């Protein structure tokens, strides 16, 4: 249900819930869990002038046991980390992207780009995965969530970056980031801004004042900001420009 605790710039809404097609159709671009929507739903969004991106995880797998899965799991969400260079994982990713394109999605939201295996020297394999996604979507829109450690190499392959938890977080309770955390993120932002790609922030709040802080801080630094809940199912009452 829409809430005053949530915000979203009209250019992008990331939403992992289901339904709400009328609300989604108010945005220029939405990022969705593709298994929550039918091809007819995507067609309806396209007819409303909304571009739909399908979520895909490149560094973790929540599916059934598979040879590319590592024993280690994400301690928060429970998915298996993957061996990003495993041929089976590459095929799995390609198949998912091909399905999304066939269902009418205009591109992909690329998530889990900074899992431990990738940061432990497998960045080249991650980049090959992203290149494979680019090959399938062609001129479609690719939005990279995080990917700070590889942003220079990712930039030629993607159209934009999503900066998650830029000003606020749900970890340890919904709160504003502390001084050092804010400074570190501002430094990362400056480096990513140098790529010239579109930039968005995805922040978290459970009360209007915290949401306002995230939007205002992001707007002051040139970001289009969305504020949602931990599960990314929060819907704003209406799109609000970052400077509003």
Helix-strand layout with pairing:
Blueprint: E1 2-3, E2 13-15, H1 21-24, E3 29-32, H2 39-47, E4 51-57, E5 60-61, E6 69-73, E7 80-82, H3 87-102, E8 107-111, H4 116-119, H5 123-137, E9 141-145, H6 151-154, E10 160-164, E11 168-169, E12 175-176, H7 179-193, E13 198-204, H8 208-220, E14 224-228, E15 235-236
Model description:
The protein has 244 residues and is α/β, with parallel strands linked by helices. Helix content is 33%, strand content 24%. It contains eight helices and 15 strands. α3 (87-102) runs parallel beside α5 (123-137). It is globular, with a radius of gyration of 17 Å.
Describe the main β-sheet briefly: 8 strands, parallel
DSSP helix count?
A: 8
Helices and strands: which structural class? alpha/beta
Based on CA atoms alone, the radius of gyration comes out at: 17 Å
Q: Which strand-content bin applies to the residues?
A: 15-25%
In N-to-C order, the SSE pattern is EEHEHEEEEHEHHEHEEEHEHEE
Question: What's the overall average pLDDT, rounded?
Answer: 95
Strand order of the largest sheet: 2-3-4-8-9-10-13-14
Gross morphology: globular
Can you describe this structure in just a few lines?
This protein has 244 residues and is an alpha/beta fold. It has eight helices and 15 strands.
Task: Using brief descriptors, characterize the structure shown.
single chain; 244 residues; alpha/beta; eight-stranded parallel sheet; three-stranded antiparallel sheet; 8 helices
């Amino acid at each position: 249900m829409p809430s005053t605790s949530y915000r979203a710039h009209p250019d992008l809404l990331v939403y992992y819930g289901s339904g709400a097609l009328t609300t989604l159709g108010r945005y220029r671009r939405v990022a969705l869990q593709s298994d929550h929507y039918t091809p007819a739903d995507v067609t309806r969004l396209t007819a409303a002038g909304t571009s739909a991106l399908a979520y895909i995880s490149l560094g973790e797998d929540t599916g059934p046991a598979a040879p590319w899965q590592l024993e280690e799991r994400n301690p928060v969400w429970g998915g298996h980390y993957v061996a990003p260079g495993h041929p089976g994982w590459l095929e799995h990713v390609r198949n998912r992207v091909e399905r999304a394109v066939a269902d009418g999605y205009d591109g992909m939201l690329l998530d889990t780009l900074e899992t431990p295996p990738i940061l432990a020297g497998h960045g080249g394999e991650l980049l090959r995965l992203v290149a494979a996604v680019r090959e399938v979507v062609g001129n479609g829109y690719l939005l990279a969530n995080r990917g700070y450690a590889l942003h220079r190499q990712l930039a030629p392959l993607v159209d934009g970056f999503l900066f998650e938890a830029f000003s606020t977080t749900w970890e340890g309770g919904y709160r504003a980031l502390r001084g050092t955390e804010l400074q570190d993120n501002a430094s990362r932002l400056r480096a990513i801004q140098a790529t010239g790609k579109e930039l968005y922030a995805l922040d978290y709040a459970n009360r209007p004042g915290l949401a306002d802080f995230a939007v205002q801080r992001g707007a002051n630094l040139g970001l289009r900001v969305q504020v949602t809940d931990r599960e990314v199912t929060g819907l704003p009452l209406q799109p609000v420009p970052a400077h509003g």
